[in-house]
Specification:
- It comes from Pelagimonas phthalicica.
- Keywords: Membrane, Transmembrane, Transmembrane helix.
- This is Citrate/tricarballylate utilization protein.
- InterPro entries: Citrate_utilization_prot_B, NarG-like_sf.
- By secondary structure, the chain is mainly α.
- The protein folds into two domains: about 5-85, no CATH class; about 90-355, no CATH class.
- The protein has helices at about 5-20, 30-35, 40-50, 55-60, 70-85, 90-120, 135-165, 170-185, 205-235, 245-270, 285-305, 310-330, 335-355.
- The radius of gyration is 22 Å and the shape is elongated.
Length: about 350
Amino acid sequence: MQTDLLQEARRQAQICNACRYCEGYCSVFPALHRERAFGDGDLTQLANLCHNCRGCYYACQYTAPHEFDLNLPQALAELRRDSWESYAWPQPAARAFHTHGVRIALLGVLGFAVLFLLIRVLGTGAGNGFYAALSHSAMVAIFLPAFLFPLISLAISLRRYWADVGGEGLRLSHVIGAFASAAKMKDLAAGHGEGCNFEDEDRFSQARRHIHQAIMYGFLLCFASTAVGTIMHYVFGLPAPYPLWSLPKLLGLPGGVLLTLGTIAMILLKRKSDRALGDEKAWGGDMAFIALLGFVAASGLALYALGATSVMPLILALHLGSVLSFFLLTPFSKMAHGFYRLAALIREEQKKRAAP
């Protein structure tokens, strides 16, 4: 990781540790105040605990023009992005996505869409519904490796992170505590429970918390829909397409709506926020990921609505191209932050329970 980012984060953390005004703002400050010195792993842990709510910045008396010039949200955001790039496997892909995220995502979607259209021309389709455009065996052959790759890549990355932050053996209580915090988006409500200051400067708002929840639960519903469809196909011999009142549709449709609306709202919210309080180098990659995730959901809904029309093959190609790009880019995009943040919350549970 970059030494200058670690040194700046250490300088600011030491000042915050001496001040302690922001004691109960979020998970970062109790964790920060437990330490007397800050090793590289301690700073990386703090960076991945931070949700960039920015409440501490607006409450701080040592921000510019004070000579201390504190901007802890930015320092931790830059260190967080640098840690993801350092732990990523393969590493160059992460740095490339954060720098050229929009271009890479767009080329990936269009390139894979053309590939799927060419496969259709070769005549692999042999079935009902979408399988008439692309056979089930072709989909499995393409998407199974694409699904396994991010799992392997993230496992390598998280193992590196866990070693650097001094992670210990997992206990069920640690995992449950971390999942409970993540499910509630607890730190986006901040210590006062009134929300964060992400988009309205020193005004509190719950908007970012609710938008995050819409995206997270929308994604989980879509994933559950896919998982249920897979079980129905392979275990019960019930292949797609499925009717409206089937479980895959009952999970997937509201999930797609939540995900589409959530990503649109997040793009609008981020455009209102102050970039100087985040990591400007990650702006393009963040926006590309949100747009890609939203397009996956929106194209899935369009595919359902227009699946019986002549434009179905084109929409299917674009949807599958976006899904394939999403899978392959997951370890290097903002999607990885959910895994790192969960790991950070688990490590925080371990430290809290070990504290005297």
